[in-house]
Write a structure and sequence with these properties.
It catalyses: 2 5-aminolevulinate = porphobilinogen + 2 H2O + H(+). GO terms for molecular function: porphobilinogen synthase activity; zinc ion binding. Pathway: Porphyrin-containing compound metabolism; protoporphyrin-IX biosynthesis; coproporphyrinogen-III from 5-aminolevulinate: step 1/4. There is one protein chain. It contains 11 helices and 12 strands. By secondary structure, the chain is an alpha/beta fold. It has a single domain, classed as Aldolase class I (TIM Barrel).
Length: 338
């Protein structure tokens, strides 16, 4: 291979038109998935202090938010339910009540917007329980544990309830063993063979979830989630977790968080290139950018676009991000930082 002076890589960087022509990684609104918090018992959008620019929406207002996003080219949405404490119990049973915030919002979306938006729903019990864990606690031999198998029964019922309301995909996030197979069997038995599963296949026990837990009211009331979410020190374990979920019937895989786990995104994509891969650009990753931009320490647009591009470059086909609306607006306005 020739070297300098015959080979001059800078020729491909000389102008923006040339850089755009040979760019390997592109970001489009259609590749972004927008998370939305749907809260029961409120009339107006409720700001989330730890996530500037983000809100909890009453089910009736979710349609307006999605309509705006569709106009900007965002096609897919991930719904999270937020409920008052009096609706919570040990097993999170209100999570599968068809009158809950997520099923209610889905029905409104379908009535007003039809099937244009792709609706994904988070399937977990943490925001619906008095203890805040993703599984049902039990006491065995003098210690408190999270019971895997009894939790599967509950999340399967949640998935069916969301499918009945009109969800395109359900997204189990609790990192329970066998969660994908339990949901696939329940959906198929109920006749929802067309409803897909986007599995939180590779979800780490991360410190980057703090703002989300405040937003969703889902922080654990005792202990932590390290007995079921993955150890941040492990990368190759992600291959095993993704492989198991594929064997159980997952249609889309996910790595969460995204920014601190770009190496894991690459590993999973290279191991399973035939499966769509989502990466969740989580709440603290979002809030850190917002906080630094507010201080004037960074250029928010430039840094945000660099982050989203990095997640795509690592191998993510889908980027789940709270920046979605901002990024789509900037692209619509012709912003191109590189």
């Amino acid at each position: 291979m020739p070297g300098f002076p015959e080979l001059r890589p800078r020729r491909l960087r000389l102008t923006k038109a040339i850089r755009d022509l040979v760019a390997e990684t592109l970001v489009s609104p259609s590749q972004l998935m927008m998370p939305i918090f749907v809260k029961e018992g409120i009339k107006e959008p409720e700001p989330i202090p730890s996530m500037p620019g983000q809100y909890r929406y009453p089910p009736e207002r979710v349609v307006d938010v999605i309509r705006e996003a569709l106009d900007l080219g965002i096609k897919s949405f991930l719904l999270f339910g937020v409920v008052p404490d009096e609706k919570k119990d040990l097993r999170g049973t209100y999570a599968y009540d068809p009158r809950g915030p997520v099923p209610t919002a889905i029905r409104l979306i379908r009535r007003e917007l039809g099937w244009e938006p792709a609706i994904f729903t988070d399937v977990c019990i943490c925001g619906y329980t008095t203890h805040g864990h993703c599984g049902i606690p039990v006491e065995r031999h003098g210690r408190q544990l999270i019971d895997n198998d009894s939790t599967l029964e509950v999340i399967a019922r949640i998935a069916v309830t969301h499918a009945e309301a009109g969800a395109d995909f359900v997204a189990p996030s609790g990192m329970m063993d066998g969660m994908v197979s339990a949901i696939r069997e329940a959906l198929d038995d109920a006749g929802y063979t067309e409803v897909g599963i986007m599995s939180y296949a590779v979800k780490y026990a991360s410190g980057f979830y703090g703002p989300f837990r405040e937003a969703a009211g889902s922080a654990p009331r005792f202990g932590d989630r390290r007995s079921y979410q993955m150890d941040p020190r492990n990368a190759m374990e992600a291959i095993k977790e993704a492989m198991l979920d594929i064997e159980e019937g997952a249609d889309i895989l996910m790595v969460k968080p995204a920014l601190a786990y770009l190496d894991v995104i690459r590993l999973v994509k290279e191991a399973f290139p035939q499966y769509p891969l989502a990466a969740y650009n989580v709440s603290a990753e979002y809030s850190m950018v917002k906080a630094a931009a507010e201080k004037g320490w960074i250029d928010e647009k430039l840094v945000t676009m660099e982050i989203i591009t990095a997640i795509r470059r690592a191998g993510a086909d889908i980027v789940i991000t709270y920046h979605a609306l901002d990024v789509a607006r900037w692209l619509r306005e012709g912003y191109s930082p590189f």
